[in-house]
Write a structure and sequence with these properties.
Number of strands: 9
CATH architecture: 2-Layer Sandwich
Strand content: 25-35%
CATH superfamily: Dihydrodipicolinate Reductase, domain 2
Number of helices: 4
Strand order of the largest sheet: 8-7-6-5-1-4-3-2-9
CATH class: Alpha Beta
Order of helices and strands: HEHEEEEEEEHHE
Shape: globular
Oligomer: single chain
Distance between the termini: 17 Å
Helix content: 25-40%
Length: 228
């Protein structure tokens, strides 16, 4: 059982349902920002400190046909702390979409946002906005010519629809973790955030470290044994 607490928040569980139901459509991109001032550490870089939260969320909400295939990582240590204090991850997803994660210890403002764009809807999750953590935008771009080989001749149409702020159920994430842990024991099953989930997150972090050491090249992510 892994303590991927964010996966048990009502917001992330709602995002998982929207992606799983197909309401978002084909996945185009994901932009995630997790920045704040400190805590600068000397024994670990900012990617290993902050990015596991975003990676565990992606591991939880992404359908199997959008799993992470490779990662390219860049980092900087402008203050001489001995570890990268600013980091960027570019993740190639199965199916052709791309995900981008920005983590930072040096930002004077705290930001916790994730934007998930699809062919039908775009989700915006602002974890610091308690009045409307999730906004669902029926906005995007449509091509009048559906033939992929002729898209360079297609006409672009901008779709401007409604913005919906879904009502989220009340729930405390840590309580959800404990409930899932107990249920998995009683039902003798793999928990939602079990060992395989944690291993896949570690595989991405390992690939990110290799990429960081080699100037940001794209590094394939090893598939965990038994992963679906």
């Amino acid at each position: 059982m892994c303590d991927h607490t964010y996966c048990y928040t009502p917001a992330v569980q709602h995002i998982a349902r929207l992606l799983g139901s197909g309401e978002v459509g084909d996945l185009y991109f994901i932009d995630s920002v997790r920045i704040n001032l400190g805590l600068v550490q000397t024994d670990v870089n900012v990617i290993w400190d902050l990015a596991p939260h975003d990676l565990s969320i992606l591991e939880h909400v992404l359908p199997p046909d959008n799993q992470v295939m490779s990662v390219a990582a860049r980092g900087a240590d402008p203050i001489g702390a001995g570890q990268a204090c600013v980091g960027y991850l570019a993740l190639e997803l199965l199916g052709g979409a791309i995900a981008h994660i920005h983590v930072n210890w040096l930002s004077p403002t705290k930001v916790r946002t994730m934007i998930i764009g699809g062919s039908r809807k775009t989700l915006v999750w602002d974890d610091l906005n308690p009045s409307q953590r999730i906004s669902v935008y029926d906005r995007g771009i449509d091509l009048t010519n559906g033939d992929r080989e002729l898209r360079h001749r297609s006409q672009v149409e901008y779709r401007i629809g409604d913005v919906v702020g879904p009502a989220l159920r009340d729930g405390e994430a840590l309580s959800g973790v404990i409930t899932e842990f107990a249920s998995a024991i009683h039902e003798e099953r793999e928990p939602i955030t079990g060992g395989q989930s944690g291993l896949r997150v570690l595989r991405i972090l390992e690939a990110a470290s290799t990429s960081l050491d080699h100037g940001g090249i794209a590094v394939p992510v090893r598939i965990a044994v038994g992963a679906g």
